[in-house]
Amino acid sequence: MAGCFPVLMYHRLESATCPVVTPGERPWAVTAAVFEAHMERLRESGLAGVSMDQIHRTIESGAAVPANWVGITFDDGNASDYVHALPVLVRH
Q1: In angstroms, how far is CA 18 from the centroid of its own chain?
Q2: What is the distance between the terminal CA atoms of the chain, rounded to a whole angstrom?
């Protein structure tokens, strides 16, 4: 058994350049600034945001997922993932 680990799942990062398109998406969107704050908080807490692929490869290898890892995933491949999230993830 792989054990438990936290995962943060994002749908869309909202900004002027990547607005929420439908009202139904609004509850599932955070602003780019809020996402940045989430990543800063993880770093300040000594936690490391990693891809779900990295977690999967670790589990498949038989190793334990490090206690300081937090999975980060985006569900729909929105443009905001690349425009806003990727630069923040690279920085942190």
Answers
A1: 17
A2: 30
